[in-house]
Amino acid sequence: MAVVTFRDETATGKPVTEWEVSGLPDRMTVRELIRLRVREEVARYNARPGNRFHGLVRPDDAETELNGYRLREPRRIDWERQAQIAERAFLANGFFVLAGDRRAEDLDEVVDLSGDPDLVFIKLVALAGG
Q1: pLDDT tens, position by position, 22-73
Q2: Angle of CA points 20, 112, 110, to nearest 5°
Q3: Domain assignment present for 32
Q4: Does the residue 45 lie in any domain?
């Protein structure tokens, strides 16, 4: 079973957050890894709902803030809805995933986790006026 480190970084390589998940199969698709990541972060939020959500993608009806999203009021977030949003964002280059030393290109690409790779998620920010 593999242990994987999920890490968010800025486009300049500055680490933002990091956590490990153990007990994973040795091979998973990028889609499965994104869904796992989203399920974990939503479960952490739902255990202690607040006005801010720190996750990969913006929940419905939330406002983007520095390093997170502001919800109008604390509420439970549906991880499956968040996973759908994340998959669409990946396909639209809203963020990219580095698996080990290479960029994942496709949701159905299989990632070998047996070498304990880090999975780095880098969110891309749209430029104003661009």
Answers
A1: 999 999 999 999 999 999 999 999 999 999 999 999 999 899 887 789 999 9
A2: 110
A3: yes
A4: yes
CATH number at residue 75: 3.10.20
Distance between CA atoms of residues 32 and 29, nearest Å: 5
In a domain, 128, yes or no: no
Contact (CB, 8 A) for 95 and 125: no
Do the Cβ atoms of 38 and 97 come closer than 8 Å? no
- pTM comes to 0.91
Is residue 97 within 8 A of residue 103, CB to CB? The reply is yes
Hey, CA dihedral for 73, 6, 127, 107, is it positive or negative? negative
Q: HEC profile for the chain? A: CEEEEEEEECCCCCEEEEEEEEEECCEEEHHHHHHHHHHHHHHHHHHCCCCEECCCCCCCCEEEECCEEEECCCCCCCHHHHHHHHHHHHHCCCEEEEECCEECCCCCCEEECCCCCEEEEEECCCCCCC
